[in-house]
Amino acid sequence: MSIPDWKAIEAHLGGCPWQVQVFEEVTSTNTLLKELGRQGAPAGTVLVADRQTGGRGRLGRTFLSPGGVGVYLSALIRPDCAPTELMHLTCAVAVAMCDAVENAFGFRPGIKWTNDLVVGKKKLGGILTELGLDPKTGRVSYAVLGIGINCGQCEADFDESIRAMATSARMVLGRPADRDRLIAEMVKALEKMDRALLTSPEAMLERYRADCITLGREVSLHRTDSVTHATAVGIDEEGALIVEYPDGRREAVSSGEASVRGMYGYV
Predict the structure, then answer these.
(1) Beta bridge partners of 111
(2) Is the pTM above the cut of 0.85?
């Protein structure tokens, strides 16, 4: 599979006004776009890389980004709001990416709280959203929406350490997957999401709840110094996971304080 083809992507964009730049290799599309955001890059700037040498995931994890098989994309938006008005941002991006995959390939992933796209019990992709704040006002200056989706891998392409819990669009479809079409659908879905981000947060959260495969399951909460068990029972208005412990006590868990896994595996 060659590097992403700008002309093919453009053909699928259908007049979407966002500006897509394609790179053969970067350290991290998020890192590069954050710098461009600080320098004043306009909303709708999108960076796509064939491979990353320093891809990042949530909680400082490494995101493996080999060439020729994945989509590594970051988009810049500039919502005029306080950061507390964007607590639902990652949820909104996750739903948009489910829409994009469905539009590109005809199947809809689920969402493992908070930011993983899954098919069955395997990870298809991940999301990392990052905010830049205006130091004078404390309001949002920009937000970078980073997404990585496995597109063209066969099972043997994954490292043995993640092979049992990773999948790709090609593996789900049983045939090659059009990476350029997926990139275009991702950009269109993010542009549509951005237009409604501040006006329809509850509608976005309702769609997230419908796609979230974590709800109703027994989960383990992995914090720095402990592992506890609970049942995932809801998503609150800020995108936190509401869990219920065996004693009936309930708690809202934020994405920054715990990693959630299934009781007997990844999901």
Answers:
(1) 117, 212
(2) yes
